Amino acid sequence: MSYQLENTQRGEKYNSIFSKISPAKRRNRTARAHWRSRILLGLYLVLMILPIYWLINMSLQTNSEILGSMTLWPQNLTFDNYIGIFTNPSWYMGYVNSMLYVAMNMLITICVALPAAYAFSRYTFIGDKHLFFWLLTNLMAPPAVFLLPYFQLYYSVGLFDTHIAVALAHCLFNIPLAIWILEGFMSSVPKEIDETAYIDGYSFPRFFVKIFIPMIRSGIGVTLFFLFMFSWVELLLARTLTATDAQPIGMIMTRTSTASGIDWGTLAAAGVLTIIPGILVVYFVRNHIAKGFALGRT
């Protein structure tokens, strides 16, 4: 009782002090706080956008201008760096190769992870918790640990320097991640929906495709986002398991050093083009990502 009385008295004291402040002063304080938050947000956005702007700025300059003096915008605007990439097969095929094995990995992973996550969320079987934890342990090992086994295995079966080789190698990390994310979304769907669908005469494949998957489409969008992000930026496995025919763009970008030095303009243009697929993926799944980060296991 004494503790509640003390809190009540303290609240009344603060209210009396606040009431003594004139409305004009309160408005001034609110306005200052509002402007401080705007300034901090603007500073944060500038610091975040500055590297990207500088990359675009360099991609529109010549090497002599890049190495000569620091300029906030191109003095001699040129698109030769982009033209060189789109007219050189060794450059633009790097983007094609990267998008091919990323798309293959996303398709394989989501097809395997959806039924596996459903099994973990709906059924109880011997060793289910241990198996689920074992899948997550794959994410704890760095990709370098699996370089030698993958290289020897793929070289023996003739999969070396192919797109499917990189896609399957990335599945080792992406499938556990996809199962972990999707299981959280599926567990939030009541089991009564499954039982109602079976009573209405739905077969399991029909129920899973027409009813269940649309209910967790936000989780699928979040999962695809993370799958793309890992496969698109991963370089170590992609570099080791390819040689010429399936080289990713990241591998080609490391070969811009020549006898005359590093081709900074072309490297910057390649970096800008590398960011664009990620922006497109985020744009198309933005609604699912916004819902998914508020739900499920993310």
UniProtKB/TrEMBL annotation:
The keyword Transmembrane helix applies. The chain crosses the membrane at residues 35-56, 99-120, 132-151, 163-186, 207-233, 264-285. Keywords: Cell membrane, Membrane, Transmembrane, Transmembrane helix, Transport. It is a multi-pass membrane protein. It is found in: Cell membrane. Residues 95-285 form the ABC transmembrane type-1 domain. It holds the Pfam family BPD_transp_1. One of its GO terms (biological process) is transmembrane transport. One of its GO terms (cellular component) is plasma membrane. SUPFAM superfamilies: MetI-like. CDD domains: TM_PBP2. The keyword Transmembrane applies. InterPro entries: BP-dep_ABC_trans_perm, MetI-like, MetI-like_sf. PANTHER family: ABC TRANSPORTER PERMEASE PROTEIN, MALTOSE TRANSPORT SYSTEM PERMEASE-RELATED. Belongs to the binding-protein-dependent transport system permease family. MalFG subfamily. This is Carbohydrate ABC transporter permease. It comes from Vreelandella sulfidaeris.
